[in-house]
Amino acid sequence: MKVFVVGGGGREHAIIRALKRSPKVDRLFAAPGNGGISKMAVCFPTKATDIEGILADVRQTKPDFVFVAPDDPLVMGLVDRLNEEGFKTFGPRANAALIEGSKVFSKSLMKRYGIPTADYETFNDPDRAIAYIKEKDSYPTVIKCDGLALGKGVIIAEDFEQAEEAVKSMMVEGKFGKSGSEIVVEEYLTGPEVTVLAFTDGKTVKPMVSSMDHKRAYDDDMGLNTGGMGTIAPNPLYTEEKQQECMEKIFIPTIKAMRAEGRPFKGCIYFGLMLTPNGAKVIEYNCRFGDPEAQVVLPLLETDLVDIMEAIWEEKLDKLDVKWSDKACACVVMASGGYPEKYETGFEVEGLDASGQTEGDAYVYHAGTRAENGKFNTIGGRVLGVTATADTLQEALDKAYKAVDTISFEGAHYRKDIGKKAL
Ligand code: AMP
Ligand code: GLY
């Protein structure tokens, strides 16, 4: 089989590695890929958001499956276009990807179907939003722009001034472009966060091993929100009991609701959950694997990923037993100095062999690297996701950090407390 993976981050490297393990796969393609991926797949220099460009690459390579991993091409309808041309795909069509593409849509879906989430109001007029915040007078308050914003469209305002500034930056100054023309103002929730990814064919939902992301840039959850600075799986705060509650009150109702709305979701759905004192609530849905959640969840998958992709495509996921290892996995992200704000690139990554790996027991998922003249140079904010699997979380973390110590590039920073809250 030939499989084409759209995307070029650490998540896509993890997907490619899981596909490579399948005895059914003999050729892999990626666009745009990255330095690490280029050692396992033929890469095309096409951006994931260049829909026409990707279609041209796919027509040329004629893969048996196209795996669309990032949010933007899913929301832009790449799967719909590929299906129209007869290609099999993994990932939702645009009308289902809207669950991530529009917070106004996902919040109203949850309200209509009684799925637990923070109370909220939506606004398309900044003055009305500001008046509402003033009247509520309860802080912190959470302000989210409707559309995709590279994970940066959420502001937690500690007082009225911050809230007003957030509304203005989104709706008046247009900091997030069209994404911010409509906003959600929601109740601030507290409790530990858990990510649960789930496979679904639109009818059956099969949750994967849970995980914990670390969104802030620095140790002890200080600094700005990032795409994710590290992950562990499973998340020990997500007990058997929580899993049952979430299955009954969140996962199954969401899949049913999407189907009832004529938007059957096929692929991987991401449940960003908060375990509040009043039960588990949805913080966000994403229409894809998380990054860096995929890097710790996929190494624990024992079933062939291609079998899962086929079962979802054929809507027979109920017939497939998806098996997981009971080991633990940890991923430490090494980022460029300055990330998530301004950062420089073009530095050589030291400590990697010709295949982009390190000695020892860890696996290095590449994100922002490019292979050039037998070396790997940095080209992005999140550069590497150094990942290890072991019998216990402590051992996995030790192995991952030991490998991190052997890798360096100018300005590199990483969190030293990944998984600490889970030990
Ligand atoms: P999101 O991009 O929607 O995942 O939001 C980014 C982060 O903001 C989440 O991981 C939470 O830590 C935080 N957050 C979002 N919504 C809320 C909320 N209603 N209450 C408290 N924290 C929130
Ligand atoms: N790690 C968070 C996300 O992928 O959205």
Report what the structure shows:
By secondary structure, the chain is of the alpha+beta class. It is globular. The relative contact order is 0.14. The strands form 6 sheets. Strands 3-2-1-4-5 form a 5-stranded parallel beta sheet, with helices on both faces. It is built from 12 helices and 22 strands. Helix 7 (126-136) packs antiparallel against helix 8. Helix 1 links the parallel strand 1 and strand 2 (27-32). Adenosine monophosphate binds at residues 118, 142, 151, 154, 156, 186-189, 193, 215, 225, 272, 283-284. Glycine binds next to loops.
Number of strands: 22
Radius of gyration: 21 Å
Cross-sheet strand order for the largest sheet: 3-2-1-4-5
Rounded mean pLDDT is 96
Largest sheet: 5 strands, parallel
**Beta-sheet strand percentage?**
25-35%
- The helix fraction, in percent, is 25-40%
Treating each run of at least 4 consecutive H or I residues as one helix, how many helices? 12
Instruction: Give the assembly state of these chains.
Output: single chain
Overall, the morphology is: globular
State the low-pLDDT regions, or none: none
How far the N terminus sits from the C terminus, by CA atoms, comes to 41 Å
What ligand species are in this complex? Answer: adenosine monophosphate, glycine
